[in-house]
């Protein structure tokens, strides 16, 4: 068996039915190389604290459920190896800037509400084509690259927990929603900026961003929301002075027959390994 | 595009302030460098009144007043509105800032006009 190290976990506990305020509990655990904070919490729950509550699912950094405040930084518990923290004491608390439901469970409703407010879906003027598609909206690789990184967002909410503006202004839309607003606005298939302006062209929109960049540092998927917010500001300013997206810049529909023909004509790259 | 326009003007005010404040400094604080007169001479009441009667200076100072006030008060509004305020209180802050801006603008314009229309020392 691999070498282990005794680590003290200071876990913040809070049960709204019993406690008037959160408190800290200490648990000692032998941690082996490669063990994640999430695995450690599972062991603590199994052996020492059966009522400990948190939210998790996929265990591989995809679902975004296990965001926690680990050693004072927002991280995914499933992606954080305990020994990589290089400390004998690991503190685990619920994400800040959210209400605390129980123990390590944050209330992520504000994240979802802000996300919904910016209408995170393709809005096209040709609604008939959306409802009854006759083909596909054609998009070049360059057009896709403009928003590609923002599609990696898993809605874990770490960026809002890291954001100093959200800490002082709970109504601020926050890095997640604003980066997604940019993601959809810059998409060549989208014409929905005017509909999004209700949320974006307001005091608590992108102009409240202090450009701290903490959101980009916290993102476990390598998304750069701080960059997205600055690009969104540029998009909004250009739109306000009449240099917004033109009709000619919106993706055209390619009839399905042509799409099929194009796929059939597509030649795969030559084999690099012979049979 | 309400907030976008307000924010754009906030940014546009920066180069305006930079240029006009630069001119102000050149005339008043760096007079020995640019005009070959002492700082005391450049700042004297007579010299101020004399310069103030120039239409270009009058217009530029009014522009500096507008740009400085707008930039400063929009920034102040941003700081205050970041506090958790009720919608009513937020509106009071907005209107309060606007009224303060109008009052300071009126005072600044009066002083600049008084200098412009002064018969001289």
Search tags:
heterodimer; A: 275 residues; alpha+beta; Ubiquitin-like (UB roll); Fumarate Reductase Iron-sulfur Protein, Chain B, domain 2; 2 domains; five-stranded mixed sheet; two-stranded antiparallel sheet; 9 strands; 16% strand; globular; B: 121 residues; mainly alpha; 3 helical TM bundles of succinate and fumarate reductases; 6 helices; 0% strand
Give a quick account of the main beta sheet of chain B: strands, pairing sense, barrel closure.
Answer: none
Uncertain regions of chain B: pLDDT < 50 for 5+ in a row? none
Q: Write the CATH homologous superfamily of the largest domain in chain A.
A: Alpha-helical ferredoxin
Number of strands of chain B: 0
As a whole number of angstroms, the C-alpha radius of gyration of chain B is: 18 Å
CATH class of chain B: Mainly Alpha
Multimerization status? heterodimer
* CATH architecture descriptor name of the largest domain in chain A: Orthogonal Bundle
Mean pLDDT of chain A: 93
Helical segment count of chain A: 11
CATH architecture of chain B: Up-down Bundle
Radius of gyration of chain A: 23 Å
Strand content of chain B: under 5%
Based on helices, strands and strand pairing, what is the structural class of chain B?
mainly alpha
CATH topology descriptor of the largest domain in chain A: Fumarate Reductase Iron-sulfur Protein, Chain B, domain 2
Number of domains of chain B: 1
Fraction of residues of chain A in helices?
25-40%
User: CA-to-CA gap between the ends of chain A?
Assistant: 42 Å
Please, could you describe this protein's structure?
The complex is a heterodimer of chains A (275) and B (121). Chain A is α+β, with helices and mostly antiparallel strands and 275 residues long. Chain A folds into 2 domains: 4-106, Ubiquitin-like (UB roll), CATH 3.10.20.30; 109-256, Orthogonal Bundle (Fumarate Reductase Iron-sulfur Protein, Chain B, domain 2). In chain A, 33% of the residues lie in helices and 16% in strands. Chain A is built from 11 helices and 9 strands. In chain A, β3 (67-70) and β4 form a beta hairpin. The two termini of chain A are 42 Å apart. Chain B is an all-alpha fold and 121 residues long. Chain B has a single domain, classed as 3 helical TM bundles of succinate and fumarate reductases, CATH 1.20.1300. Chain B is 84% helix and 0% strand. Chain B is built from 6 helices and no strands. Chain B has helices spanning 2-28, 31-34, 39-43, 45-52, 55-81, 87-117. The radius of gyration of chain B is 18 Å and the shape is elongated. The mean pLDDT of chain B is 91. The chains are: A alpha+beta (275), B mainly alpha (121). The A-B interface holds A 165, 168-170, 172, 197, 201-203, 205, 207-208, 233, 236-237, 239-241 and B 1-5, 7-8, 78, 81-84, 90.
